Amino acid sequence: MELKKLEVPTTSITEVKKSPMDVFEQARQAGTAVYVFNREKVAGVMLTQEQYENLLQELHSRPEPVEDEIGTVDGLDEFLNVMREALITGATISAKNLDERMVALGFITRKTGFGGVVDMVTELKQTGKIIYQLRKKHDGKNVVAEVIGEQDNQGTMFDKLIIKKIHLKDIQ
Fold it and tell me: What SUPFAM superfamilies does the entry give (predicted)?
């Protein structure tokens, strides 16, 4: 596996312990955060107070994201809201847990056989989404849910996913 080259300053936890003010100065001079490593893994990020406050201000001034209208199927708006409460966007979830929640919501499991979770992660990597089919037809149509997301590369477990959006579609 190839390591990513960070285009931001880095330091070690040992250096932070020796002189945290030097690391803050490094962040100030670079105009960006400093990644702090502990045993070759990112342990955290250090920012100056000004950088942190600017990030908060930028976050609060961003407009609320508008949900795509593609995610609505007539008569299933309330069901879609229940799904979005059960599967919080932006949260990290294991593929196994995602499948269990989707089954509890009435979808057909994707964990078939030995490699089910691996297949789910592979599908997500290849297409950017995992598709589930609702067990029962709605108004004579098959309904599928698209769980759009990406693999969480920060964790130690390979099956951790980050959910970005959830859509419902009817198919013929």
Answer: YefM-like
Helix/strand/coil for 163: strand
Q: Quote the pTM value.
A: 0.55
Domain range for 42:
10-61
pLDDT of residue 172: 64
Task: Please check whether residues 75 and 57 belong to one and the same domain.
Answer: no
- The model's pLDDT over 87-99, given as tens digits with 9 standing for 90+, comes to 888 888 888 888 8
* 88 shares a domain with 163: yes
Contact between 118 and 147 under an 8 Å Cβ cutoff? The reply is: no
Which residues 6+ apart lie within 8 Å of 167 measured at CB?
68, 70, 71, 145, 146, 148
Contact partners, residue 163, CB within 8 Å, separation at least 6: 87, 88, 89, 90, 91, 93, 98, 147, 148, 149
The β-bridge relationship of strands 34-38 and 10-12 is parallel
Q: Which tokens belong to 22?
A: 């030097």
Q: Quick check: 36 and 23 in contact, CB under 8 A? A: yes
Query: Sheet harboring 142-151: ordered strands across?
Result: 92-94, 160-171, 142-151, 129-133
Kindly calculate the radius of gyration of the chain based on its CA atoms and give it in whole angstroms.
Answer: 21
pLDDT digits (tens, 9 = 90+) for 59-115: 777 765 544 444 456 677 888 888 888 888 888 888 888 888 888 888 888 776 656
